[in-house]
Every structure is written in C-alpha cells, then in structure tokens.
Automatic annotation (TrEMBL), chain B:
CDD domains: PBP2_TMBP_like
Domain of life the protein comes from: Bacteria
Protein name listed in UniProt: Sugar ABC transporter substrate-binding protein
Signal peptide region: 1-20
Organism name: Rhizocola hellebori
C-alpha cells in the first residue's frame, strides 16, 4: 500500500490561500471581532473601574437604556446632525464636482482648495474654527464689517448645531467631491452629445444622464457619509462639549460621557451596541434601496 | 470559514477576558519601577520632583525608575480612569478635589497606615480620609485670590485693590464697579473667573461663597442652587455679566496674565505666570460678600493606587515624597497642608514673586478659614448635569430663579444616589 503524501497539490493551494488572507484575517479578529464581542460582553456588566468591580447584571443596562430620559434628546440631536450633514455634504460635493468638471481655467486650483481641508488634522481644524466662531471671533468680525450683528454661534442651541455641521462639511466635502469628479469623468461624452442633438437642456442632461450614471457613486458616498456622521465625536468635544444644554450631545459623545467621564463603562458599552445596531440597520436599508434607484452598477 | 472565524474570535475573547481578570501579583522584592501621573508639565515642577525621586532612589537601590507622567489638566481624570480601566494605571496619581470622593470612597487608593498626621491641618485632610484613615496626602491646598492689574485699574480712574482694602471697601459691589469701569474705558475684560468659561461652574464657588451659598449641603444630599443665598449671588453675577459687562460674556475669552483683563480670580500657583509680567500687579484675598470675608480653596491629593503592581513601594515613596523636608521644597509651588510650614516666612522663602503680606492674607488665612470647592461622589455626572442646566442662565433675558430651580430638579436624582 502506498501512502498518499500529506501535501497534495490541493492542500498546498489551500495553505497558500489561508496564508495570503492570514494578515488581514488576524487584523480583523484582533481589532474588529474581539472588540465587538467584548463590547457585547461589557454591556451585560456593571463595571466600576475605581472600585475594581465587574459584576454580571444581565439585561439591566438594556433596561436602563430603554428608561434613559436623556436618550430621546440624544437620538434627536444625532438624527438632526446626520440629516443636516448628509444633505449639505452630498449636495455641495455634487455641485462643486459638476462646477469643477468644466474645462475652465483654474479648476485644478479650486479642486486643490476644496480638497485641502481633508488632509488637515481634524482637531487642529476644529480648534481654529472654535476661535473663529467665538462671539468676538473672526466670523462675527467679518459679518460686522458688512453691518451684520452675528449671533454667538456656539452658545445658541440652533446655531451651535448649524456650526458643527458646517465645520464638518467644509472639512470633508472635498473627499466626496473628488469621488463625484471621478464618477463624472467616467460618463461617456457621446451621451451628452446625443442628448444635445435631441434638444435636452443642461438640467435635463444632468437629471437623466449624469445622475443615473453616477448613482453607484452617490450610493457609496451616501453610505460613507451617513456612517461617518453617526460617529462624529472630536468636533463636538472641541467645539461644544455637547452644549449649550444638551443640544449637541450626539450618541457617540453621550457614550463617551457615560463611559469615560461618568465611569459607567457597562452602560457606555450598551450605548455602543445601540450605535452598532443603528449603523447596521441604516447600511442594510441603503444597500437594499440601491436596487430601486442605482442603475448602471458594474 | 465564517464559523471558523467566529470560533477564533470567541477564543480570543475568552483569552482576553481571562487576562483581564484579577491576578494579584506578590509584592515585588526585585527591581521596582514607579510611575506617577501629574497634571503639571512645568519644567521647574518636574525638575524638583525628579530631584526628590533621585534622592529616594539613592537610598532604595531596588527602585530602578520613578517616572512623572504629565497628563493635560483638562482631561486628567478621564485619562487616568481610562488608563486604570485598560489595566495600565499608574502606581501613584495626583487626584483633583472634584474627583476625591470617587477615588477615596471606592477604595481605589492604598490607606496610608502609619502616616504621621500630627502636623497636618485637619481642614486640609478632611476630603482625603476613608473611615478615619488618610488615603491620600493633600500635597496642594491652594486658596483662590484675586490678581489685579493695577495699570488697567488706574487707567480706568479706579482706586487699586490695595487702596480699597485699606479703606475697608474691598467688597463685591466695588470690585464689579471697578471691573465695569475697566471694560468701559479700555474695552478689555474687567474681571475673569479663570477656568469658568461658562462651563467650569464649580469655579463660581469663589463668588457665591461670599453670599454663604453652596452647591449642595455638607452631607451632599440637598441641592443648594435654588436656596435664597444662591439665587441672590447668581442674580448679582448675572447682572454683573449682562448689565455691567464687568465679566466677559459667554464665548469670549480674555487672559489676565497676557494683560487682557483688569482682575482675575484664580489660585496663587498661577503667580509663576507673572514672572515676566509687563504690568503692575497685586494679589489680594477674595472681596467680602454680603456674608463678610470668606476664602475658597482648591485641593489636590496624592495617592497610591491599590491596583498598581507595586502598591506597597508606591505608598512608601509617597510617604517620602511628602515628608516634612520635601514638603518644604514642594511649598515653592504647592501650598503645604502642614501647620509647621504654613507661615508667611516659610512660604516667602520659596515664593519670591509674592510679598509676605500677600502670603499671610491669601494663603495662610485662606487655608485656615477656607471652604473647599464643591465635590461629591459621581461628580463628573453631576457637573455635566449642572453645566447643561445652567446654560440657559447665560443669556441677557434669563429668569435666574427658574433656571436655578431647573438645576436642582436636574441634579436631585444624582445627589440622592
């Protein structure tokens, strides 16, 4: 009887495959799956760091979540921020991309100008805006020069939220703009020519050719922006610390307060689970919706 | 594949939680290295600490390293507790007075058995005891005083603080009048309550204590924000901000030490910022309020963490770091809690920028009569609730009584915990 060699060609191929994916898989396990599992685990515990106690409390934290009187306000602020950010970011990015897709002088310069905030350090960017938005800061100085008495941006409930949204949009709109630009340049020029021959105006061309053809990119940027908007933290921490009142206390900032400032690590973990669930649901919904309105998907 | 990945993740999770369990290590007899978290990054402070540490290591060869690890003040307590949560806590830590109740009551600190407390001022150690035992040494007991820019006051046609004091007129009414005059005349800020910035409300205790008001009762159970004394004090402050423009309004910053304000309320340790001061200045006690003279002190304690790997060695170093001889050296920057050192002569040796008279009136008298800034267990959550509830007060048309009632209804459930 001849013994079959262990290392058959098939097994070798398998091993090679596993070795190729190993670094990525290991990274995912250590930095994604294990922390994810731990967050669920922590959410079932009451963890007092100072007293060094870690007690299993079952669903108690989830009950607290359901009963938390502050949570509706936090979710409302989060929703308001996300809607404002996504609407403003995507429409501005698309507008800029369309404008900068023209063959005009200086488009390269403006592309660079709008993209450059993306590479600036987030916290440095936000701190500078914090100074500009002070009552006696640069924004109100400019408004004053044209005779407008600007509001105390970061101290009013509405203006604080608007400020945070705008600061974030200006910071990141360049990234979506570049993605849109790339998509726009992939739209075949002959479609526009044909449309022109048929007598379609600019708006008609945009609506019936541009938008459908770049819809995969719109979906992508939308998912990225929605997920990113739900995770906003640094801007809130630097600009408003959740105030005035609790008007800009979004979910991640609330989670940070509960876990790291109030030392309710268990409840903080529970809020993380909630955030995870929200992001998951929104992403799945958007992904499903794509079948309805994303055309030309490769 | 998916199943295998999940299994691996679970195995990793179990391994990690097992590691996270409590594994008490035996007291190290071998080489010991200690780490102390501090919130100062001042070179002179760190130099002094390192000198004391070097002297200790010369006597204790098994201690190979003593590291002072500065953490920014704004996020100090958060960073410290996060380090502890991550199993990466220091061996010794400075603790701010507002975090004291949490650190002391939770049992996170090693009791300093056998520490000779006979020389310590009882008022200074009150916050740092558990079951009658000292668990942290209040290495800094720093009274609040008023730094005055005499040049700005004179330019505004106002008497200096020293003149007002000499006439017995150093009162809150006159301070606000002078601050308003500075603002009207120079456009600079009149009076800045440092570190308040319409967020750090506990710094306002330096004002309301003059009305006999308090954030909560001594037992921590009853909210004090809607009591008559507090309503009166806050009404006065609100008027000073929005009618008198004596204090810079919300969202406006002014740095006294850069010459941008007439007066500022802060702790005496800030005097070092005036080393290259380009204006004539003075340091005086807090003005008298309707309830007469008063003082407010901020405190910082030093404790050894029970969870640290070398808790025993850390406690031993703490005892050495704060003994009478070293306390005298530390007094250069941090007012000591020791009776034997709390006199103007001792303090003057190490505080060249301050005159003996200033040290006596602000520091020595302040420590013996002062009330400590508000502190409560679960302070971070209470502080956040108060900040959010006080926000509506910082508008010109605010209804002070209604806002303060709101503060109490917001924090009552937390005080009851």
């Amino acid at each position: 009887m001849t013994k079959k060699p262990f290392w058959t060609g098939r097994r070798r191929d398998h091993l090679a495959g596993y070795l190729f994916v190993a670094p990525q898989l290991l990274g995912s396990i250590v930095f994604v799956f294990v922390p994810l599992g731990l967050v669920f685990w922590y959410s079932l515990h009451e963890w007092n760091v100072l007293a060094d106690t870690f007690d299993f409390v079952g669903a108690q934290n989830y009950q607290a979540l359901a009963d938390d009187p502050k949570l509706p306000g936090v979710l409302a602020a989060t929703g308001l921020f996300s809607v404002g950010l996504v609407a403003l970011n995507l429409s501005l990015a698309l507008l800029l991309a369309v404008l900068l897709n023209q063959r005009l002088r200086g488009t390269i310069f403006f592309r660079t100008v709008f993209f450059s905030p993306v590479v600036v350090s987030l916290v440095a960017w936000t701190i500078v805006w914090g100074f500009l938005l002070q009552d006696n800061g640069g924004i109100n100085g400019m408004l004053g020069a044209i005779g407008v008495d600007g509001p105390n941006w970061l101290r009013g409930e509405t203006t604080a939220m608007v400020s945070v949204v705008v600061v974030q949009v200006v910071k990141n709109v360049g990234l979506n703009m570049v993605l849109f630009l790339a998509a726009l340049q992939g739209v075949p020029a002959n479609l526009y020519e044909a449309a022109k021959v048929d007598g379609a105006g600019r708006w008609r061309q945009f609506r019936t050719i541009t938008v459908p053809l770049i819809s995969p990119t719109i979906l992508l940027t939308m998912i990225i922006t929605v997920v990113g908007s739900l995770q906003i933290f640094a801007q809130i921490a630097v600009l408003t610390q959740g105030g005035p009142g609790t008007s800009t206390t979004v979910l991640v900032y609330y989670l940070y307060q509960q876990a790291f400032q109030f030392h309710h690590f268990g409840y903080g973990a529970t809020l993380s689970v909630l955030l995870f669930a929200i992001v998951l649901v929104l992403t799945v919904v958007q992904w499903q919706l794509r079948k309805k309105w994303v055309f030309h998907e490769s | 594949m998916k199943i295998r990945a999940t299994a691996l993740a679970l195995a990793g999770l179990l391994a990690l939680t097992a590691c996270g369990g409590k594994t008490e290590e035996p007291a190290a007899a071998g080489p010991v290295s200690l780490r102390m978290t501090v919130w100062t990054s001042n070179e002179a402070h760190l130099k002094l600490f390192n000198e004391i540490a070097a002297a200790y290591r010369a006597e204790h060869p098994n201690v190979t390293e003593i590291k002072f690890d500065p953490i920014p003040f704004e996020s100090y307590t958060t960073t410290l507790t996060t380090q502890i949560a991550g199993g990466n806590g220091p061996d010794l830590a400075w603790v701010l007075e507002n975090a004291a109740p949490d650190f002391v009551s939770s049992g996170a600190l090693v009791p300093l058995d056998g520490y000779d407390t006979s020389d310590l001022v009882p008022a200074a150690t009150k916050l740092w005891q558990k079951d009658g035992k000292l668990v942290a040494y209040p290495f800094s007991t720093s009274p609040f005083g008023v730094f005055v820019n005499n040049d700005l006051l004179k330019a505004a046609g106002q008497p200096t603080a020293a003149e007002l004091i000499a006439q017995g007129k150093w009162t809150w009414d006159n301070v606000i009048a002078a601050a308003t005059a500075v603002n009207t005349k120079s456009g600079k800020a009149g009076l800045v309550v440092r570190d308040f910035d319409y967020k750090g409300w506990d710094n306002l205790s330096t004002v309301w204590a003059g009305w006999g008001a308090e954030a909560w009762s001594a037992d921590g159970k009853t909210c004090g924000f809607n009591k008559p004394a507090m309503v009166e004090a806050m009404t006065f402050l609100h008027r000073a901000i929005f009618t008198g423009k004596a204090l810079p309004g919300p969202g406006t910053t002014a740095d006294f030490f850069a010459g941008d304000a007439g007066m500022t309320i802060t702790q005496i340790s800030r005097a070092s910022l005036l080393k290259d001061g380009k204006f004539g200045w003075d340091l005086v006690p807090l003005p008298s309020g309707p309830k007469g003279n008063y003082a407010v002190i901020g405190q910082a304690g030093l404790g050894a963490l029970k969870k640290g790997r070398n808790a025993k060695a850390a406690a031993e170093f703490l005892t050495y770091f704060t003994n009478a001889a070293n306390s005298a050296k530390l007094a250069a920057y941090f007012p000591p809690p020791r009776k034997s050192q709390l006199n103007a002569e001792t303090l003057a040796k190490t505080n060249p920028l301050l005159k003996p008279d200033q040290l006596q009136k602000v520091v020595v008298d302040g420590i013996s009569t002062g009330v400590v800034k508000p502190s409560h267990s679960g302070q971070a959550e209470i502080a956040q609730a108060v900040r959010a509830a006080l926000d509506p007060l910082w508008k010109a048309d605010a209804n002070v009584t209604a806002v303060l009632d709101g503060v109490c209804s917001s924090i009552n459930p937390l005080l009851a915990k």
